[in-house]
Design brief:
single chain, alpha/beta, TIM Barrel, eight-stranded parallel barrel, two-stranded antiparallel ribbon, 14 strands, about 20% strand
Length: about 350
């Protein structure tokens, strides 16, 4: 079939807190530039205090009033730290405000020490985050699909709960029933544990994606499209085992990049930016695997490689203080190269 590659922009809602010449108003202005430049979606991130940034749901509500067409999503939200009833109500409200344009990019929480401290501060068991995450997504989907939820899990227990007291015309619901949820995961067979443990982790992640998600969002390891192909194979096996339709899943890739006049220039700007934005991760990871840097042609070549590996939707995060310049350059020099449909 023919499908059109889609492109979104992560608005870097941490940047107004680390860049002296960039504020929240400029971020909101940038959302309008992204939409008018032909992108398909706008995204914001999430962190409590390990990497402080403006809160995503409130920010997306504001962005929804500055835009009319682009999809609005989180890349990503740590839903395992949120009460699913409150999150269901907040997100349903956002979906209504935006005219049904939301995509919930949901993650369980990564292995950074800062994230562990967030769980501890909230009185949550970090070791159980995956199970809490799955139960929460099940509750969200049921509430958003039917208007009520009866759920008896290990962490959440509800009997016929709905946003309806009997005096309203009906339960408070999102416009989309349900809003799509893209499960965030970076499953790999090779890592910091024994092979059998890595395999169990991989299988659990793939099962989670097909059972609870409408899409899969991944990132990092940007020099290895073959890993993405391998991971998609495991996800397809999990879909077959669960008797669900693998082809319904959107494959989204969040990539951090920098466009310059040369690879050397782009790499220098990129490295400086990432060391401020993600001080902990940037020290522990080869920056070449965060995403491509270089000329527009080099960026386009990278996108083609990962599109061929199976990506449908690229979420572009620009590693530079000049967010407007990067968005405009991508829109004028890279985006037109992918305006035509690709054959699958």
């Amino acid at each position: 079939m023919s499908t059109k590659l889609e492109f979104g922009v992560n608005l870097n809602n941490r940047e107004p807190l680390i860049a002296p010449d960039y504020d929240l108003k400029m971020l909101l202005d940038l959302s309008e530039v992204v939409e008018s430049s032909g992108f398909d979606s706008v995204w914001v991130g999430d962190s409590l205090f390990s990497k402080p940034r403006y809160e995503p749901i409130a920010l997306l509500a504001a962005i929804s009033q500055r835009t009319s067409r682009v999809k609005l999503g989180t890349a990503c939200m740590v839903t395992s730290t949120r009460n699913p009833l409150y999150l269901a109500l907040e997100w349903a409200t956002l979906d209504q405000i935006s005219g049904g344009r939301t995509i919930l990019g949901a993650g369980a929480g990564n292995p950074e020490d800062g994230v562990r401290r967030e769980f501890e501060a909230l009185g949550l068991d970090y070791a159980r985050r995956a199970s809490v995450f799955e139960e929460g997504l099940a509750v969200l989907r049921e509430l958003w699909t039917t208007g009520s939820v009866t759920f008896h899990g290990r962490y959440f227990d509800y009997d016929d709960v709905s946003f309806y007291s009997g005096t309203e015309m009906g339960p408070l619901m999102p416009l989309q029933k349900p809003p799509p949820m893209w499960v965030v995961s970076n499953p790999r067979l090779k890592g910091d544990a024994a092979p059998e443990i890595m395999r169990r982790r991989l299988e659990a992640a793939c099962r989670r994606i097909v059972l609870y998600g409408d899409g899969w969002m991944t990132c990092c390891r940007a020099q290895h499209p073959e890993e993405l192909t391998e991971q998609l194979g495991w996800i397809e096996q999990a879909a077959d085992a669960a008797e669900t339709d693998f082809s319904r899943l959107v494959v989204a890739y969040q990539v951090t990049m920098n466009i310059g006049d040369s690879e050397e220039e782009a790499r220098a700007v990129f490295g400086d930016y990432i060391s401020q934005y993600y001080p902990e991760l940037s020290q522990a990871m080869d920056l070449s695997n965060w995403g491509p840097v270089g000329t527009p042609e080099q960026i386009a070549d990278w996108i083609r490689a990962f599109a061929a590996a199976g990506v449908d939707h690229f979420i572009c995060r620009f590693g530079a203080l000049d967010q407007f310049g990067q968005v405009k350059r991508f829109a004028s020099e890279v985006l037109p190269l992918f305006a035509v449909e690709r054959e699958e």
